[in-house]
Fold:
Amino acid sequence: MNHDAIVYVVDDDAALRDSLTWLLESVGLRASVHANAQEFLAGWQAPDNAACLLLDVRMPGMGGLQAQSRLPEHGIEIPVIVITGHGDVPMA
Structure:
């Protein structure tokens, strides 16, 4: 496992961010957490190591799918995993 790998977690739910951070760190991954998509995009700096993005669908302001569509304009080319507590078949 690459212990320098980083997982960016973007979710408006603080408890979920904390839980995901604990889970990721328990298996040797670093977590960079952000409360919303705007914060993540504004602070983006390309990592030197492997990375991926966990992105919540429903957040105040910019939702996860909108944020995903804006990744290329910020030069973000990392794998994205979309998460939600409110999903349905049409959304998938």
